[in-house]
Amino acid sequence: MQALDAAAIRRWAAVSVQTLDSQREAIDGINVFPVADGDTGSNLLGTMRAALEALLRAPVDERSETGAALTVLAKGALAGARGNSGVIVSQMLRGLAESLREVDQAGADDLAKALVRAAELAAEAVAEPRPGTMLTVLTASAAGARRVRSGVLREVTAAAARAASEALALTPQQLDVLAEAGVVDAGGRGVLVLLESLVTVVNERDEPVVPYSTSQPSPLAAREAGSTEFGYEVMYLLDSTAEDKTTVLRDTLMTLGDCVSVVGDGDGLWTVHVHCNDVGAAIEAGVESGRPHRIMVARFADAEGAPSRFGRARVVVIPARGAGIAALFRTEGALVLEIGPNDEPDVWDLLNLITSTGASHVTVLPGDEGLMGIADEAATRAVAGGQDVIVIPCASPVQALAALAVHDPARRAGDDVVSMAEASAATRRGELVVASEDAITWIGPCKAGDLLGFADGDVMRIEHGPVTASMITTGAFAVLDRMLAAGGELVTAMLGADAPDSLADELEKHLRRSYPAAEFVAYRGGQRDSVVMLGVE
């Protein structure tokens, strides 16, 4: 297709509705900004349906040219706009209509200029534009179209869609809430659908194509019902010819809530949108500015049936140092972030793992005192994105193993967390470590190369180096004896890379002689930072 005529505009609207309908649930499922109310796809579909219906019902002489058809489409979208995303799309269409008002058929250069105007008007519809939203995606698409100098329509539309897709993929880097939820912007995805539909029409395809869609998966599961701060969505149409009054209206609504938009068609019809708690005040502000009608009020807490953002109920996530320990936790059914022995732990790596699980409830077992901080920070960020994340304090892998051993996915999440926390807390921990430098301990000085015995975090034994196999065995016995003085039923040993091959057998023999009632289990963890880790339950 060399140019867009009125018939092409009608087909574009129809293909957009068709594609939005097929992708509505997926777009609803990634809707976490500005409010995780799971309705962006539904709102975009409703808005475009209203626009298409207006175009189909308009007299033929009012929609026979490209500019005229777009004008009718824009007015229908404005009158039927649903949600903040619907309002923005109505202004996108209005910008296209304004730029092509006198155009019978729109060529490549015409469309590129029109997309720029569409992005400008859409941005004006939002009181406080932020990067990483559908406005960002729309602006990028306009820039992509303007860069094409070939004068070929299909190349311009392809460039616009490609630029939109690239901008959409970057939205999680611009909005923390998107990164924390592991999704791209839902409104931006809707903009890309509209541009993909235009590509379909220009290339004269029979079925919608999505050649530029981002490959990022959409997490699924039960949604959170609306904003935590504002409980209602208020929308209405407003008849007013006084633009100064609508400016006052916008300022007033911004004091009442967020997601404010007050936009018009240039002929005295405005659409008003706000999230607030005082519904009466939002409507009264409209009365003072003109004549509100078609008033719609929705309570976020009442919304039901939205698609789930999460595909599974619960998982256990463990950040682990070293391949051996990581493999051990994986065999026990946990999802593991493996951290190299010399690597610094990264909160974003753990956050990405948590959000990518697709689970509504995540239990994190740090398994190391040095990993507690990143676990807490990653959990806080994931909770902000809508997941239920609990960090159970575990200062050692043996405590994480104890917690994982009692994990029961069939149990209520709260009860399961309590059981795991109790198992971790009831596990006393010990270890043998080779000192890396000279230091002063609670029981005296040590030198680099000495063997230190720890029980529950405190140094209780110092063996002066160089370290030998017999010294390690004797030190492990001493630490175990201290820990078992208060009793114990199960002893767990996690052998490090420097542990003697005979250590597990020697520990088991010692337990049979001195503590015959205690069970024993040993694992080859391969850790470099300790010779052996011990746990007593």
Task: Report what the structure shows.
This protein has 18 helices and 16 strands. The chain is an alpha/beta fold and 537 residues long. The strands form four sheets. The chain has a six-stranded mixed β-sheet with strand order 13-12-9-16-14-15, sandwiched between helices. The chain has a four-stranded antiparallel β-sheet with strand order 2-3-1-4, with helices on both faces. The chain has a four-stranded parallel β-sheet with strand order 6-5-7-8, with helices on both faces. Strand 12 (451-455) and strand 13 (458-463) form a beta hairpin. The chain starts with 5 loop residues before the first helix and ends with a strand. This is DAK2 domain-containing protein. Residues 7-200 form the DhaL domain.
Structural class: alpha/beta
Q: How many helical stretches?
A: 18
**What global shape is seen?**
elongated
Instruction: Work out the strand percent.
Output: 15-25%
Order of strands across the main sheet: 13-12-9-16-14-15
Mean pLDDT: 84
Whole-angstrom Rg: 31 Å
Strand element count: 16
The N- to C-terminal Cα distance equals 74 Å
Runs with pLDDT <50, length 5+? Answer: 209-227, 302-307
Give the proportion of residues in helices: 40-55%
Q: Major β-sheet, in short?
A: 6 strands, mixed
Organism: Kibdelosporangium philippinense
Protein name: DAK2 domain-containing protein
Domain DhaL: 7-200
InterPro entries: DegV_domain_contain (IPR050270), DhaL_dom (IPR004007), DhaL_dom_sf (IPR036117), FakA-like_C (IPR033470), FakA-like_M (IPR048394), YloV-like (IPR019986)
